[in-house]
Amino acid sequence: MTNQECALNCGRQVPDSSYICPPCGTTTTRLLQSVQDELIEGPPRRVIPGLATDLDTAITRETNFGTGGSASGETPVLFNTSASEARTVLLSALATWTALIAEQRGLPHPAYLLRDLAAFLEHQVTWLRAQAAGAEALDEITAALRNATRVIDRPADRKYAGPCTTPDCDGEFIAYDQARLAHCRDCTATVELTARQDELLERANDMLLTAPQLEKALGGLGTEVRAKRIHEWCARDRLTNRGTPDRPMYRVGDVRHLAALAAARKGKAVA
Ligand SMILES: [Zn+2]
Ligand SMILES: [Zn+2]
After folding, report:
1. Which residues are 40's β-sheet partners?
2. Origin, by domain of life (predicted)?
């Protein structure tokens, strides 16, 4: 059999007789692994909660506090599914494919629990890559895992640190709580958060974003600047609107520069 393109349309060639390329299989494997809690050897030793734990936590929060809009009103709504819905969709996707595979391969069916189903499927990825229906399975499993990951990705808990730098990994670096290291959910790569943030900011300087996007993006990278403030800078001609009058967009580098000036002025007084 000659090489063919990956059935998941990632654009990569499949080097063996499978339908799906190894990196796409690895992406699904890593996402399935991310369901489990993970022990990070220190120092300090810590347990990174897996997707299953995070979903449970988020569902508890929803039950306690509801899923209504944010208190400030200006924070953009980033997702419109609740954690409990995402969990139901994920459980159903994993259970459906587990049942099909277990029956076809004559394997014992694992318990109907996220962790058990994910652990079972993790070992079926190589087999799935070689099946004609494997693309549908991997596509659905990956989509359900990514959706659930996004739903529980609360900005207050995590910091985004950009796309993973591991070759052929399609994951993203996320830092947890006050962690010094950002961690890719799809592979085991970690990166020093501050170094990575500086690098990302340098690369992001020419990007155009709206004021609320800037507030969120720069906030996640350690620079506090309010959307209202950004509009004020523009109104006072200190900042150029590079979008339209209806949808003002600003250059990241320009806003960083003004934010740094403001922080330097204020910082001296506060410190
Ligand atoms: Zn692929
Ligand atoms: Zn990665």
Report:
1. 46
2. Bacteria
Q: Residue type for 261, please? A: L
Token pair in block for residue 123: 């070992």
Ligand 1 center–CA 199 separation, angstroms? 28
Q: What is the pLDDT of residues 57-93, one digit of tens each?
A: 888 776 655 444 444 433 333 333 578 888 999 999 9
Count: domains in the chain: 3
| Cα(98) to centroid(ligand 1), Å | 21
Structural domain containing residue 253: 205-270
CA distance 32 to 118: 5
Whether residues 142 and 169 fall in one domain = no
pLDDT in tens, 205-220: 888 888 988 888 887 7
Query: Is residue 170 in some structural domain?
Result: yes
What residues does the ion ligand 1 have nearby, CB within 5 Å?
A: 6, 8, 10, 12, 21, 24
Ligand closest to the CA atom of residue 30: 2
